[in-house]
Amino acid sequence: MAVNRMKKLQIVAHSSYRPELIRFLQHLEAIHIVDLAEEKSSETAPVELESESDSMNPKPGLQMKPIIESAIRGVRNDLAELQFAINYLTKFEAKKGFIAGFWGSQVILSQQEYTEIIEDMDSQLKIPMESGKWLNICHECRSLEAEDLQLTVQQNKLNADKSYLLPWSNLDAPLEEIHDTEKTAIKLGVIPIIGYDNLCAEIESRGIDVFFETISETKREKCLLVIFLKEDADIIMPILTNHGFSPTMLPATHPQPLLPTPGPSEEGRGEVSKIAELLARIDENIQKIETRKSEVHRRSVELAKEKTKLMALYDHKLELLEQEEARENFIHTEHTVVIEGWARADKAETLKDKLLQNFEAIHVELSAPNEADEPPVDMENKRLFSPFQMVTNLYGIPRYREIDPTPYIAPFFAFFFGICLTDAGYGIVLALIAYLIGKKFVRNEGGGKQLFRVLILSGIATVIVGALTGGWFAIPIDEGPLSFLSKVRVINPGEDQMKFFAVVLGVGFLQVWFGFVVKMLIDIKERAWGSFFHSDLSWLIIMTGLPVLILFYKKLPNQLLIVIEALFVICAIWFVIFSDREGKNIAGRIGTGFFGLYSRISGSFGDILSYSRLFALGLATGIIANVVNTMALMTWNVPYLGKVMTVGILIGGHIFNIVINTLGGFIHTARLQFVEFFTKFYEGGGEPFKPFKREHVYTTIMENVKRET
In the sheet where 184-192 sits, what is the strand order? Predict the structure, then answer.
């Protein structure tokens, strides 16, 4: 229930062990690697092999950094290829459920299955310099995506051209014949229906000879073939334009053909001569494109069966990347490799024994951290408290020599969350849903798993708080079959708002007071007696005595009241005089002390009032639940659909209320811990303990995996 103690681990091994040693350390998953490359100029040299006293000094000309950087670039390129293929093939695999897809469940493999996949997909493991099966799949995925994109562009172009030509499909004349003659002009175009009627009227009134043929028409416009004498062109063309006539250029009359032939070669098939033939050719090419797109899709679906293998290989390549990046932190000499890291003190000796058993030319030394060291932090709490480490991590993990606040916030967080919901029914639903989602969809131990465990525990706390406040989906429990639940109720927030408000401020005061208690205990642990006696102890007595005087002034015996008042005054004077211990001027110290006392009192009042947000959220949850029930009952007698509507409103409304108030409760409860509680004693800012290990994105390796036959 604290920060685990650490030991420094220094390893010096023969350079021939380097690859095997890195893999061994990665599989141990117990050592936090330190970057020695930046510290090799330090005055304190690492441990040396007795048989090779100069082996710690890097030899001139030994340049490992370019080699490592080149290896890292190569692995990252491989990862990029694999990531592309995985993303591409994801579109062609069977769809997952919403929740499973949202949480991105990992593939579970046994160690044997994992190893067999890697050996099958990566030929370089057996035959150096030979490209693996995975690379061929990645290249094919890129080729398929590029081809599908090209086919889609061609298909869109053909569909656009088809839409352009379709209104002219009734034009029976060959395209090569639609052109001006020596004395006549032939125009194709589109004109609005209203414009056409006005055009005909004006042409008739002017007595000009013009031939119109309607090729097709819609409710808004007509497609026209217009023939007139060239000598009348200067008169007719402005008239056509004025009435909205828009010329259309068909392939045979367009200076650059609109329809380049896509797909397979069209040689030997002859030229099209009519719009209908051109449309038929377009439909034929569209069909060919759709057929090829189906083939591309079918092949992609087949390749999607290899996605799991690519995911496993991605994680393997990620292991290699982590190994190369770890190598950057080592000191490399001509004959040795030097590694430094941190390990948990309770596991350090075991790690040392394992290293000495598996490698011969190796030296391992363990040492306790000195004052200048700032070891990484590994928190370990009891099972009931450990989920709340994620709340601590949101603020910042403690420093190595600082206390872990997780056990102190756990009961407050769960209880405050329960106050925000104040409904036992909501607590049951929340705990059940969090349990099912966490168990089925979140396998890795980490932030996701911890979040759902926090919600489970907070849901249980909500059941308790809800029972004490009489909240059961906002159902009245004073009468009827649920009346037995009213015997458990202690307070009704809907009727006794001020009493509920006082309870909320009371628990807020308790947490703020407890924060100062923890600060005082830290002073004792660190032997900071000046801070303990001169400010923390006196302020804690003041903070305890002030509410006692306010609440019980008229009820306390006079003798006890005099003692409390005297103690209160003495502590206040003591705080004023000694809180500023560094001041040299007595008047200045007293002035600073008075200001400090005022700041402490006003600040504490402000901190306690911040807990009123719990009161507001608790009331809001109950009010919204009541509104949902009222709306549902109003629809009960609606003909035909009334009962269905009632059930829908009840389920949808209460789920919405649970979700929105769970979110609000979590955020505001966490804020109270960070702003009102942690500030009393906690600093944070430590470096998390990150053991060098295999970090998998897509796969989970388990010892025993049962497969359905």
Answer: 210-217, 221-229, 184-192, 246-247
Coil/strand/helix, residue 480: coil
For residue 566 the two structure tokens come to 């005297």
Distance CA 276, CA 288 (A): 18
CB neighbours (10 Å) of residue 661? 25
DSSP secondary structure, 612-640, as one string: HHHHHHHHHHHHHHHHHHHHHHHTTTSTT
pTM: 0.75
Backbone angles phi, psi at 549, to 5 degrees: -65, -40
Mind listing the pLDDT tens digit for each residue in 607-624? 999 999 999 999 999 999
Give 54: exposed, middle or buried? Use CB within 10 Å, 0-12, 13-18, 19+: exposed
- Joined tokens for residue 144: 């398929």
Q: Are strands 336-344 and 32-33 parallel, antiparallel or unpaired?
A: antiparallel
Dihedrals φ, ψ of 688, to 5°?
-70, 145
Q: Quick one: tokens of 369?
A: 């951290």
3-state secondary structure of 378: coil
Side-chain-side CA neighbours of residue 587 (13 Å): 0
Q: Which amino acid is at 302?
A: E
- CATH 3.30.70.2750 positions along the chain are 164-284
Q: Spelled out in words, what is the top-level CATH class assigned to the domain 164-284?
A: alpha beta
Using an 8 Å Cβ cutoff, are 250 and 272 in contact?
Answer: no
Reported as a single tens digit per residue, the pLDDT across 83-123 is 999 999 999 987 765 555 544 567 888 888 999 999 888 76
Average pLDDT over residues 131-148: 91
Rounded Cα distance, 331 and 60, in Å: 14
DSSP string, 355-413: HHHH-SSEEEEEE---TT----B-EE--TTTGGGHHHHHHH-PPPTTSPP-HHHHHHHH
